[in-house]
Amino acid sequence: MQRVRARLLSYRKQERSHPAWLNSTRVTSVAGMRFAAPFIDLAWSLSESHTLNNASDKPENPHDPDLVVARPEGLYCPCGDFYIDPWRPVERAVITHAHSDHARFGHRHYLASQAGANVLLWRLPGIALQTLAYGERLDFDGTTVSLHPAGHVLGSAQLRIEHKGRVWVASGDYKLDPDPTCAAFEPVRCETFITESTFGLPIYRWDAPQAVFDGIDSWWRHNASQGRASVLFCYSFGKAQRVLASVDAAIGPIFCHGAIAPLNRAYREAGVRLPPVRVVGEIAARDKAAFRQALIVAPPSAQGSAWLRRFGDYSDAFASGWMRLRGARRRRGVDRGFVLSDHADWPGLQSAIHATGAGRVIVTHGSVEPMVRWLREQGLEAGAFDTQYGDDTVEADAAGGDETAATSGASPVEATQTTQATQATRDDTPNAADLEARPAADNTTSGP
Predict the structure, then answer these.
(1) What does pTM read for this prediction?
(2) Region Disordered: which residues (predicted)?
(3) Does domain 209-340+398-427 correspond to CATH entry 3.40.50?
């Protein structure tokens, strides 16, 4: 096959050679960090998704080599000679989404979804990036790959790999709940499905998202009536934008921490509608009155920092799937916990796996052993890959420094405080005692 070269412009607008592994019949490129991805069709639903149904329903021959294997660098596709979300530097990396446990510096060539280009280039400036639209196929050396919506965050994608009539799908992180800020999860038929299992225990069952946002609105509205600020901690990329797009902006003014502002811009450039949001650093430090009826969205790293003093009287809350557990809320020490996750819950994981029609499932991270055991009990062939992917606690990115390094809206003091707090961010993965706890019966998603 004739080598195809494309002009890829990096953050510094340097010209780079198109990697040989991406020989294809159609080539796309990204023009630097300010590339504006096209509007995403947010109207997709699970029942209306554009599913590929040409995978064989017959089980794979056990003598056929696996299309994906685990190596010290990451998950590797031998027939295509590329890695999926590798954690060590490699020649060619397919990135499912821009969270820092899946997207890292050091690879020579990157392939990711067109929808997530803005965020990925903000996190990893200067990388040689090629993008694919959802559903667009890339053919090289007898292997065909395509990316399909995962519903996790903006630009998140599942990777479909087809080789000699066999189809594998690597999910990355995903959720099935509706989210106005990213394309909905698309089930893709395959023989082997590589899945996450962050919340892979029966205790994790999410309420309807609208009920959660109604609870956040009620908490905010009550605080505003008392002249009190409402500080909501949530992860900077994905969760923050989902919250902003879903709360009732008529309740009061909305502010965000400086670390969240550039991600908001990337979402807007991708066509996602967000309400007007001001950066906290734009307000004079002594002007506490500006926040008395406000909702302030901040990363978890800001919790317990001096940055919070500027709000005067405030109530704080945390939005995370871990809030399903009493222990997680207790360790966070917040006034309220809202159970909201960008990962699939236990029923969602089962639904997604079933929708693929896969006879074999490989689990990558989260509650791996319980999930593998359960899948085997259901008659599926199941195993696990040992990976270095994280969980729902990932929020502090190191894009050439701390998460505020590229923030134009944050004051130097705000950026410094966040850097210090980020270094002290603790892991909130529940311990064994938490997993034994029953789901809390308190009103974590209802008004005061």
Answers:
(1) 0.77
(2) 393-448
(3) yes
User: What residues does each domain of the chain span?
Assistant: 8-203+343-384, 209-340+398-427
Distances (CA, A) of 159 to 94, 97, 102, 246: 8, 11, 13, 28
Task: Identify the CATH number of the domain defined by range 8-203+343-384.
Answer: 3.60.15.10
Residue 83, φ and ψ in degrees, nearest 5: -115, 155
Quote the Cα angle for 337-342-346, to 5°.
90
The structure tokens listed for 39 are 């509007």
Amino acid type, 432: A
Q: Are 239 and 299 in contact (CB under 8 A)?
A: no
Query: What is the spatial order of strands in the sheet that 295-298 belongs to?
Result: 278-279, 254-256, 295-298, 229-233, 314-319, 336-338
Mean pLDDT of the chain: 80
d(C-alpha 365, C-alpha 199), whole Å: 10
pLDDT in tens, 72-109: 999 999 999 999 999 999 999 999 999 999 999 999 99
Nearest to 397 by CA among 263, 227, 252: 263
Model pLDDT for residues 274-326, shown as the tens digit of each residue: 999 999 999 998 899 999 999 999 999 999 999 999 999 999 999 999 999 87
